[in-house]
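Justification of computing resources. Each target in the renewal requires a structure prediction run like the one illustrated here; the chain below, 216 residues long, is used simply to show the kind of job we budget for.
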Amino acid sequence: MENRIYPDSGVELKSFTAKHYDSVMNTASFGLYKGFIKRAIKDMDVQPNDAILDLGCGTGRNASLMATNLSDMGSITGMDVSEIMEKQFSEKFQNDKRIQFVRQRADIPFELGQQFDKILISFVIHGFPHEVRKTVIRNVVNHLKPGGSFFMLDFSEFNMAEMPPLHRFIFKTIECKYAFDFIEKDWKQILTENGFSDFKETYYMKKYVRLLKAVK
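Resulting structure tokens:
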């Protein structure tokens, strides 16, 4: 059994899942993950000179999509705790000086010595207990430039009891217990309390997934 900080969470991946993460996500979403991730990254409106922090960057799938819009002056810092993800990420971008990897947990206070134009966290924050999510948000606030944009790509707010039975079964089967309270939170209110405003919401997957943009 692999040691886990949050035994009830789904964000701490077992070795096999981490090694095959992109394929696992494609399968679990019935092939839909690849498509809406592309749309979500496009909806971030990445600018050529953006400095971007990708929290829980995984294998670098999102970074690859964001990098297509960057000039030589832009940059992406991918951050993840997994050695397996670090290996895949680093191999993918070994010849791209715009992109670097930092192995660091997002759920404890950290200091990268830099502020960013955009910060993305994609399908990570829902897997933490809520008190830990507050730490993640504080890290975002500390590392985002004034006027910078925070993008939370994750489940939207919905009532699980109102889901069609098949969708509800799938959600309850594949998701950890922390996801069940995540979908009940008013994330615009939470982010407002942390100094964010100018929200924009873009929905995917029959509105079960949302890209929430918030400006510091």
